[in-house]
Every structure is written in C-alpha cells, then in structure tokens.
Write a structure and sequence with these properties.
The complex is a heterotrimer of chains A (335), B (295) and C (342). With 335 residues, chain A is an alpha/beta fold. Chain A has helices at residues 63-70, 93-100, 120-130, 136-146, 151-154, 164-177, 194-210, 222-228, 246-251, 256-264, 307-311, and strands at residues 19-32, 35-48, 52-56, 78-83, 86-87, 103-106, 182-186, 214-219, 231-236, 239-245, 317-318, 328-329. The chains are: A alpha/beta (335), B mainly alpha (295), C alpha/beta (342).
Chain lengths: 335, 295, 342
C-alpha cells in the first residue's frame, strides 16, 4: 500500500484539466502508545477548480485528518497530495511553506483558532507579514469588509471581545488575506449557534464566488454539507465509501452506510414519523480504528452484509444507474 | 457589538482604558491592593535604603541594647544595640535582590528550556525532564549548601545558587503551558500561513506562556525569600555585617527569652512580604486562567 | 400518532408556574430564566428547544435544584411535582426525590460517569440506597437494566470501567442509572449532542421507547429542532430565558406564531433543498442576558418588529388552536405548507 508508484490510478479520480487538488492513495498513521492506528487508509479523491467537495462521516472516520494531511499538518504517512500538479508531500521545508500559501484552512473552534493575546488586525495580517506583502493595511481592510467586519471598530480589539460567529468571520478573513486557491473548512459551523450557522454558511458561499475559491468542506452534519457542496465524499473508519455529485448521492445513495447516515437525520415533520423507520437502523457502534474489521470495514454494522464482505475488501466502482457521471461506490452489493 | 459611530481617534484611548480595566478593574478586592501597597513599600525601601532618613544599620549603640519598640528606636534595637527599623529597611535590599535575581535566572533558563521542550517534544523533552526530575528529587538544602560552599557567599553567588534550584519548577510550568498552547488551532493556522518556527515561538507561544510564568514568579519570589532566610539561619547567607531578614531572625533567637521583638519583628515583616507575594501572584494567575477559560 | 389530548391521566406530573431565575456572574445579574410556565403530564414528552445561553439548561437544573447555591441570586415561581411544591424543599428532602421521582441525563456521557468505579457499582448504588436492595439483588437488577437499555452482553460488561465503553454505550449506562428507581419524570439535557448521528438515533429510539413503556414524563432539552420535532408531543421554544412559543409538535411547524420560531426553522439547511440554496440567516446574535433591554428580547433581530416590541414585553397568549401559546404582539399566522421538510 505504501508503494504508490506501482499502484493503478484509482477509478474515482477524474481525467480533467481543471483539477486543483488531487489525493492519491493517502495514508495517515498515528502512533497511539505502541500501537499504530491507521486514521486514513488509502483515500484517493480530487477537487476541480471552483468546486466544493463535502467530506462527511462520523467522528473518528478520518475526515478531519484528511483535511489536515492536505495541508501537510502533519504530512501523510504515504500517498501523494497534488496541488495544481505539484506534489506537496515531496517538497522540502522552504518550497512547501511557499506553495502552501495557496491552501488555507478554517477550524471548528473559532475561539481556539485565534491567539488571545493578539489584536484582530495582527491576526488577519499574519500571512501578509510573514511574506512581507505590499499594501498590507489595504488588504486587511478589504478582507475584513468582505467578511462583514467593520475594520475601524474591530481591528484594535482582541478575540475574546467577540462572539463565536464573529471569531469565525475573523478566521475567514485571515485565511483569505493571502488570496488562496483552496480553502479547507474543518467543521466550520458545528461550534456555532443554530441561528449563526446560516450567516457563516452564506458568507462562505459569498467568499467562494468573490475570490474564486475551491473548497474542501469537512463536516458531520449532512444537511450542512449538502447545502455547500457540489460533490460529496463519504468516509467510514478511514476509508472512502462513496463519492459523487451531491444531489445524486443524497437522492440515491449507493452505499448502505450513506443510506443509514441519511436515514439517521431526525425528521422535521412530525407527521412523517415512522416513514424513515423502513430503513433498518444501524446496530452497534463504530469498531476501533486500531483493529478494523476484515474485508469491508462497514460489514459489522451493515444490514446487507454477506460472507464475501468479510473476505474481500471492496474496490471503487462506478454506480451503474446514477443520475450523474463520476459517482463511485466501494461496496460489493451497492444499493 | 460596537456601534459604528465611534470615531477612530477615540477608539484607541477607549481600547487602552478597556484593557486597563480588564487587567486591573474588577474583582481583585481590597486585600489584593493592600498586598500590592505593601510590596511597593518593600521595593521602595530596597531601592532607596541609603537615602532614607534612618539610622546607620551597622552602628552598635551599646546604650540601646535590646530596646523595646517605640523607645528611642522606632522598632527597638537588637542585641548589639543596632536599630531594627534601619536594619529591616537595608535587609529588604538583600531579600529583593536575591528574590529578583534568583527568580529571573530560574525564569529565563527554566522558561526557555520548558518552552523548547514543550514545543519540540521528542528526545530533548525526555532528556530534559529526566534531568529536572533528578534535580527536584535531590534534597534542595544539601544541594544549596554544596553550591554555596563551592561558589562562595556573595550576594550574587547566593542569588545564582537559589536561581539554579528554581530552574526545574519554571521549566515545568513553561512546558505545561506550552503543551496546551501548541494544541490550539491558531498555532496550526500560523503554520498553514507559512510562519517559521521562530516566529511561531515568539508570536504565538511566548505571549501565551509568559503571563502564567510571570504570575508563578511572584509566588516563587516569596519562596526564594524564605530559602534565603533558611540559609541565613545556617549562617550561609550573605556575610555577617550586611543585614538580612533571615540573619536578623537568626540573631534574634538568642534573645527570645528576654526580648521577643528582636526575632518577631523581622519574622512578621517577612511573613507579610511572602504572604503578599503569594496573594498577588495567585490572584494574577487565576485572573489569567479565567481569561483563558472565558475565551 | 401520539395525541396528547387522548392521554387518560388529567393530573399534571410537572407544573412550573412563573419560574424566574437570576444568576450571579462577574458581569452582573444574569436573567437566565424569565417567567417560564408549562405543564407536563405523565407519559408525555415536552421538547424544549433553544440556542446556547437561552436558559434551557439552567431551567432544567433548577427543577432538580442542581444549580450551585452561590450562583443563584434569585429564584421565583413554583414547581409542582405530582401536585407537591418542590422548590421550597430542603436539600435532604430533595435528595429523596432525586432517583425515585426525578432523574436526569446529561449531555456528556464521558463526565457523567465516575471513571474509577465499575459500571456495576454505579448502576447498583442507587438501588441499594433508595430501594434498600441487597448487593446481590442490586447486581441482578443492574444487569436487567443494562439489558433493557440495549447493552449487549450485559453480564460481562457490568464489571467494566467507563473508559472501556464507547460513547453510545456510556450514554446507555447513564440512561440505565437514571432508570434505576423508576422515576416518574426524566429530564434529558442534550442527551445526544455529544454522539454521532447514527448513534443519536439509537439513543433517541431507546429513550422514547422506555418513556412510553414506563409512562414517564420526559423533558427533552436540545438545540436541534429535528430531534424535538421527531420525538416530542409538545415543543417549547426558548429564547433569552423566556418560552416564546409552546405548541403540540404536530402543529407547531405548520402554524408557527412567533417570528423567532419561524426564523430558526427557516435558517436551518435542509437535506431536501438543492445544493447552494441560499439560507435565510437570522441577522445579529442572541442577546446578552445581563441587563436585558426592555421589550421583546427578539425585537432587535425580528423582521416584523414594531415600536411597541422595543418597549413592552409581550405576554404569553393563546393562539387560535387549543394548546398553542406564544409571546408575540404581531404573530406570524400564515400556515406553512410542510411537504417532507427535513
């Protein structure tokens, strides 16, 4: 698995000219005590220019680790991350620092992602200062106005004087200051109040248009992911289960896990109670990532599992009658 | 959120006022300010002892031997007839100098080691922690005696010796704080921006580690003053004629039966100083902690 | 369909009248709960929805008197449990209520369990204490309870420690502990917020199943509209310490009266909407609860607010349908078509 050069190109990687970000056979190992845990296991996917890829799954599925591995924070244990054709995972320190400015990241906890001892102006200008860019003040004003903050009243304050939603705006402003191509959002709204989530989601959508961003959006909330994404990738226990057009996946999930996730969302209409009960409830909990099941990792909770699922690990295959092309699933018995 | 009508010029001053209010404004209570006033008095005495209108602390006036307080000597006189008030004021100098030097040495060396260990982890951290554990496990008084015997009894030597003893404690405080800061996402965000390691250490880690370390320094200073007095008690602090609080207590023990005040007055002075340091340090530290948790 | 009107028991299990709670804080008095009244009958579930800081957890904790004594500056109003006033009881008398009469489930199953005690000790302790069971009998009952909350292999699991269980299993243990003394009222404060969606559904199914089976009253407190809509009989929407709207679950979202309920409902991304659908965000942010401004707390963010809303606090009034209450001068009355909204 670590020998990438001899592996075939995964099926789900598209052959297009406008691919901005491409992950090939990504593996991330963590050392837990004396055990090695594979948090991300052979994940390949790509994101085209101007596209938003939603990455969903339950906690511990490795979705956030993928986001950070793209940034090389920390670098993946194996596999390649290609950003505009350049292999980030092969780069030396200085070249990596240079190239990585084209990718920026927003985190889940907006408060923990802002240094409490620094002023908002310095936080937003951080990247500009590091790279000694010209016209820093003007750029800082521009991005702060773009995210809906008034530079005159906000710039000289410190993060603890702001609410979570506003802190997230500051984080977005900081990430935009260097004019990146790719924005990686790691659960950007899950720490926010329901009434503030929509503001930030709309803002991200606006910023994507205004600055021509390509986005990777990591989240556990399927409704939020659908709202922002063009394509969606579903992960389970470090593996990619299904990837494809957002509408296609939500309308006709091909992987039993995707279907179960969708069915788990509580229904807002009390009259519809009982309808979703037709879809069998997932039994049990996530297995330990330190000791994943053989074959298909989902088989221990899968209602359709057969003997073959324990023996052979399913590979990605195109979904036969999907609404859109480029819809792939890793299942022996797709729905 | 702020109304947009604030003109920019005013907002600077307002921000400063707000910052002042945040650090010193609410919730400290009168005890904190009493302690601060006491510490300021001690610091003032230490700085200006030579110019203050007090008697010569080294001049033995036989007639005044063991005078009680509020006689011709304000706080009485010791067994050699020297003025206790004057000796207290000059003794403050030793306590403050030793306190400041020892704490600075510990803070600079220990703090730097702790931050480096906490940030880079790995072999350096493990090795450093092992060495520090050994130093901590060593009986400090024996270590101190050995150090003083080795480098002498000057004010500077004693400060360095005590400061050396404090390196492990500071290293631990700095390392623990660094470990929690490094996990914060703003460090990750800075890395993603392309910040160099030294920039991250100076701009992101240091400002968040230095305040708890400084607050700890105040508490440590109180302990340093006690350590100095313990050395004085054993006759190993600064050489004899120079007054120190510990030395005064040590001399006073001979007269405990006849003139209690000779030992009690420097003890009370030291007690109040150490208490004030602990109190101020503790309040400041909890203030920073609260600020962290509010964030 | 669960129709609350068809419940045979008319006696209310829990009746809260004009409950107000002020808390001490560094920034001054926090008006955490303001003039909250509601009734809960046996066998019913009342869902309380609100954002963080809306006072829903403070209210829940105050029902069991679990707020730190020093934090509470003022407490007004009455809380009747099966007709008995409990807000004036001494700590000792309250301890006798907790367990057999009221039990509570908290958000975080990691911190709700004691890490150094086995599951067996934690589940059987209340059995021995409140019901005077012997050690063996309590252990046998504990195994039954763990079985009932869906813990596989309970006989062996019972001697494990909390860290050996997954989050979902821990929350099941917490539920088992809450059920030990057959409480008549179960307060579940964000019981699934720390859990993954697939596990969330298991736990909600378990809770509603047990609640029906044992005819418990349940207060289900959450920030997730979907959770209450799918599980509660009645829904109460809380904003800035007040209940702004209370209605049966099957009518609330079809005829929302309070602008906050409507705004909250509309701001949530829906799984059935197309990608990149523009969300109707609520402008501004939830208000600070110290020194509340006069008038309706939602007025500064409300699209329909008039002069009057900024001056007077709207009282709770009855809407057209029975059992539908709201606190708004200018209710939104247009019924909403609800075609498979998720």
């Amino acid at each position: 698995m670590t020998n990438t050069s001899e592996q075939a190109t995964p099926l789900q990687l598209r052959n297009r000219d406008d691919i901005v970000l491409r992950l090939e056979h990504l593996v991330v190992n963590f050392q837990v005590g004396k055990q090695t845990v594979q948090a991300v296991s052979d994940v390949s996917l790509d994101v085209a220019l101007g596209e938003t890829l939603g990455l969903v799954g339950e906690s511990g599925c490795g979705k956030s680790t993928v986001g950070r591995a793209i940034m090389q924070l920390p670098p993946p244990s194996a596999g390649r991350v290609l950003f505009k054709g350049q292999d980030l995972s092969n780069m030396s320190g200085e070249a990596l620092r240079q190239t990585r400015t084209g990718l920026q990241m927003i985190f889940q906890d907006p408060i923990s992602s802002l240094n409490p001892r620094r002023k908002v102006r310095d936080i937003v200008a951080e990247g500009l200062q590091i790279w000694r860019r010209p016209n820093q003040d003007a750029r800082v004003r521009e991005v702060m106005e773009a995210v809906g903050l008034d530079p005159d009243t906000v710039a000289d304050r410190r993060p603890h004087q702001f609410s979570g939603g506003q802190c997230q705006r500051i984080c977005i402003a900081r990430s935009l200051a260097l004019d990146p191509d790719v924005l990686i959002c790691d659960e950007p709204v899950s720490a926010l109040d329901v009434s503030v989530q929509a503001q930030i989601l709309n803002l991200l959508e606006d910023m994507k248009q205004r600055y021509q961003l390509t986005m990777v959006f990591v989240a556990h909330n399927l409704a939020v992911v659908k709202n922002v994404s063009d394509r969606v990738a579903v992960m389970y226990l470090g593996k990619l289960c299904e990837i494809g057009n957002a509408e296609a996946i939500y309308a006709r999930p091909a992987h039993p896990y995707t279907r179960a996730l969708l069915a788990s969302i509580p229904d807002m209409d009390p009259d519809a109670r009982g309808q979703q009960d037709k879809i069998p409830l997932l039994q049990g909990d996530l297995p330990s990532p330190a000791n994943p099941p053989s074959g298909c990792r989902f088989r221990t909770r899968c209602p359709n599992a057969q003997a073959r699922c324990a023996e052979v690990e399913p590979v990605m295959q195109a979904v036969a009658d999907s609404m859109t092309p480029d819809h792939f699933v890793a299942c022996h018995f797709p729905l | 959120m702020p109304a947009k009508k604030h003109p920019k010029i005013e907002s600077r001053a307002q921000n400063f006022a707000r910052a002042l209010q945040q650090v010193f404004g609410r919730g400290f209570g009168p005890g904190f300010w009493l302690a601060v006033v006491w510490l300021l008095i001690v610091a003032f005495c230490a700085l200006f002892a030579d110019w203050l209108p007090v008697r010569d602390p080294l001049d033995p006036v036989i007639a005044n031997r063991l005078n009680g307080p509020f006689t011709s000597n304000l706080l009485g006189a010791d067994g050699l007839g020297r003025d206790i008030f004057a000796r207290l004021i000059h003794g403050a100098r030793v306590s403050v100098v030793i306190g400041l030097t020892a704490v600075s040495i510990g803070m600079l060396i220990g703090g730097a080691l702790g931050i480096i260990a906490g940030y880079f982890r790995g072999h350096f951290e493990r090795a450093l922690m092992a060495v520090l554990d050994v130093i901590l496990a060593f009986p400090w008084l024996v270590l101190l005696l050995a150090l003083v015997a080795f480098i002498g009894q000057s004010l500077f030597a004693i400060s360095v010796a005590i400061g050396f003893l404090w390196i492990p404690a500071y290293a631990r405080v700095a390392r623990a704080n660094t470990l929690s800061v490094v996990q914060r996402e703003y460090v990750l965000a800075a890395k993603a921006m392309g910040a160099s390691t030294s920039r991250i250490l100076i701009k992101e880690v240091l400002p968040n580690v230095i305040l708890p370390v400084l607050a700890y320094g105040l508490v440590a200073m109180g302990l340093v003053i006690i350590v100095e007095s313990a050395l004085a008690f054993l006759g190993l602090s600064v050489e004899a004629p120079q007054p120190t609080w510990g030395g005064m207590i040590s001399e006073g023990k001979r007269h405990l039966a006849t003139a209690v005040h000779v030992a009690v007055i420097p003890s009370v002075t030291m007690f109040l100083t150490v208490l004030s340091l602990n109190f101020v340090g503790d309040r400041l530290r909890s203030r920073f902690d609260v600020k962290e948790s509010n964030l | 369909m669960r129709q609350p009107e068809h419940m045979e028991s008319n006696a209310s299990l829990l009746q809260v009248n004009n409950l107000s709670i002020r808390l001490n804080s560094a920034a001054g008095l926090v008006h955490a709960v303001e003039d909250v009244s509601f009734t809960l009958k046996a066998g019913q579930t009342l869902g309380i929805v609100g954002e963080s800081g809306s006072g829903k957890s403070v209210m829940a904790r105050s029902l069991m008197n679990l707020l730190p004594r020093r934090a509470v500056a003022q407490r007004k109003g009455s809380v009747l449990l099966s007709g008995r006033e409990i807000s004036t009881l001494s700590e000792r008398e309250l301890q006798r209520l907790r367990g057999p009469d009221i039990a509570m489930i908290f958000q975080d199953p990691m911190t709700a369990l004691n890490p150094v005690l086995t599951i067996c000790v934690q589940v059987s302790e209340p059995l021995q204490q409140h019901l005077g069971m012997s050690k063996q009998a309590a252990r046998a009952r504990a195994i039954e309870l763990l079985d009932a909350v869906g813990i596989p292999d309970a006989v062996n699991r019972i001697d494990q420690y909390p860290h050996q269980l997954s989050g979902g299993m821990r929350q099941r243990v917490v539920i088992a502990i809450a059920l030990t003394c057959n409480p008549s009222l179960l307060i579940a404060d964000e019981p699934t917020t720390a859990l993954d969606v697939t596990v969330q559904r298991q736990i909600l199914d378990l809770l509603t199943g047990l609640q029906k089976e044992r005819r418990m009253g349940m207060l289900l407190i959450t920030h997730d509209l979907g959770v209450v809509a799918s599980r509660a009989d009645f829904i109460a929407v809380m904003y800035a310490g007040r209940l702004v709207e209370v209605a049966p679950a099957n009518t609330l979202f079809k005829s929302m009266q309070h602008p906050y309920t409507e705004a909250l409902f509309n701001s949530i991304p829906r799984i059935n909407d197309a990608s990149h659908t523009r969300l109707q965000a609520i402008p501004g942010r939830p208000p600070q609860l110290h020194n509340p401004a006069p008038g309706c707390a939602f007025a500064p963010r409300c699209p329909y607010a008039q002069q009057r809303c900024h001056r007077e606090t709207p009282p709770v009034v009855q809407a057209e349908q029975a059992g539908h209450l709201h606190a708004c001068f200018y209710p939104v009355s247009a019924p909403v078509a609800l075609g498979g909204v998720r």
